[in-house]
Write a structure and sequence with these properties.
It is built from 11 helices and 28 strands. By secondary structure, the chain is an alpha+beta fold. Strands 1, 2, 8, 9, 10, 11, 19 and 20 form an 8-stranded mixed β-sheet that branches. A 7-stranded mixed β-sheet has the order 6-5-14-15-16-13-17. It has a 5-stranded mixed β-sheet with strand order 22-28-27-25-26. Strand 10 and strand 11 form a beta hairpin.
């Protein structure tokens, strides 16, 4: 019953972390209180940076095949279609950003794809297994579990709470979570199968009686699948199928019988909350267990994926490569400030009117600009750089690169896998005389300036230097085995 890492929660956060640990050869258990994967479409937009993570994990092709571009918005009033507009700032694919558009795919389908990848990697989810107690000391974590076989006690080197905003693990270890109401009015979100509505638009009834209503066509499933979102100016939402059908009849031009089926439905009040810390001893918080967002801007699931991606490689380097466990301290130091910034973005977008013609989602929400300049793992040894120059701490953009055998590749394809990568940038620097073991080396002609740039396993530039002698000590801190 002992494992290196126990992950509580098989949502997007837990599944991404599990896939990452599996390919690193880390022993773990992934437990999920529910009997199956989350069935709802809830988090439906994958930001460009998240698509880069999914490319690294080997599932982006499946995600693209199951999803679609975001449709244009269409406003309705009195049964008459009105203004058509775009919620997104559209960008063409280019060198540096191969997947620039937010990709729409229901959360249940994203989770299915990640779960299938986990099975390919030879690992499983223990469904119907809940955390009931947590005790830890300097040697490890003892976790009470209850599952199909009854209550048991498991032990692990580390415990990761990926069990959502009401995290049992967070409460068990006593980490406070401070928050505020973003909007005092409640809202209803539901997955519905609906007829009589074309799928080329995201439909909005902004002046509907009782509050705005939105119906968004969902890819990846039945062609009549839509996600319903409705705000309530007063009263409490009712998730019963009959009430959802009546809501559609009251707020749109469609009759109640147009709703052929009501699937998952939930009531929520938009909240912004942030845990005081993301680590306590051997317990880590990730995803909604650490930060809860308004859905405005599509940041919650994406930030959660980035948490898992940041933590996974660090656990791998400590547990499999002999890195100093102090490396794990950098998880909170890097991710907590990012989560705080993202909360501010989501809250400001919500209060500005998250879905209205005057509000468009652009670079602030794409997460390509998230980085760790000045962070604990950032070492920029070059001088005289312009502020907008690519520097240590920044996300490494995609570009053409050349391997020592002269073959030309895309850098993102070289980065795929659990390893760090060394980029020799520019034409003036010589090759590294003794390339580090287990670290692919490529040469890049454009976009990276001049220097030796060591890219961390999560795709951020950790070290940038003009002296190759700086490489060995930096790599030693990441583990050498």
């Amino acid at each position: 019953m002992h494992t290196d890492v126990l992950i509580a929660g098989a949502g997007p956060t837990g599944l991404v972390l599990a896939c990452d640990l599996a390919r690193r050869g880390v022993a773990f258990r992934l437990v999920e209180q529910a009997e199956r994967l989350f069935p709802g479409a809830r988090g439906k937009g994958l930001q460009p940076r998240t698509q880069e993570v999914l490319h690294d994990l080997g599932v982006l092709d499946a995600v693209h095949a199951a999803g679609s571009r975001y449709p244009l918005m269409l406003t309705w009033e009195d049964g008459v279609p009105g203004q058509e507009w775009d919620l997104m700032e559209r960008h063409p694919a280019e060198d540096g950003v191969p997947w620039p558009e937010v990709w729409m795919i229901p959360q249940w389908r994203t989770q299915e794809i990640l779960y299938a990848r986990l099975l390919e990697l030879g690992r499983e989810v223990e469904f119907g297994t809940a955390v009931t107690a947590v005790r830890q000391d300097a040697a490890g974590v003892e976790v009470g579990l209850t599952g199909p076989g009854g209550p048991v006690t498991a032990t692990a080197g580390y415990l990761v709470a990926a069990d959502g905003g009401r995290s049992t693990v967070r409460r068990a270890v006593g980490i406070p979570m401070a928050g505020e109401s973003v909007d005092p009015t409640p809202a209803l979100v539901a997955d519905v199968r609906i007829t009589g509505l074309e799928r080329d638009h995201w439909h909005i009834w902004p002046k509907a009686p009782g509050g705005p209503a939105l119906l968004c066509p969902m890819p990846g499933g039945d062609p009549t699948d839509f996600q319903l979102f409705a705000q309530y100016a007063e009263g409490e939402p009712d998730t019963a199928p009959a009430a959802v059908r009546q809501l559609v009849a009251d707020r749109t031009h469609l009759p109640a019988e147009a709703v052929a089926e009501v699937g998952w439905a939930s009531v929520f009040r938009p909240t912004a909350a942030l845990a005081d810390r993301f680590r306590l001893g051997r317990v880590f918080l990730a995803g909604d267990a650490a930060h809860v967002h308004s859905p405005a801007g599509g940041q919650g699931l994406n930030t959660s994926v980035q948490d898992a991606y940041n933590l996974g490689w660090k656990l791998g380097r400590v547990l499999r490569h002999g890195a100093d466990p102090a490396l794990l301290d950098t998880y909170e130091l890097e991710r907590l400030p990012v989560a705080a910034d993202v909360l501010e973005i989501s809250t400001s977008l919500h209060r500005a009117g998250a879905v209205s013609p005057g509000v468009r989602r652009g670079p602030r929400t794409e997460q390509l600009g998230v980085g760790y300049r000045g962070g604990p793992l950032t070492a920029e040894h070059r001088t005289g750089l312009a502020e907008d120059a690519l520097q240590a701490g920044d996300r490494a953009p995609d570009t053409a690169c050349t391997t020592p055998d002269g073959a030309v590749h895309r850098l993102f394809d070289v980065l795929r896998g659990p390893h760090p990568t060394l980029v020799v940038a520019g034409s003036a620097l010589p090759d590294v005389p003794r390339p580090p073991s287990g670290v692919p080396v490529v040469r890049v002609a454009d976009g990276y300036g001049e220097g030796y740039l060591l890219i961390r396993p999560d795709g951020y530039i950790g070290l940038a230097t003009a002296d190759p002698a700086d490489l060995a000590p930096y790599l030693a801190a990441l583990g050498t085995a």
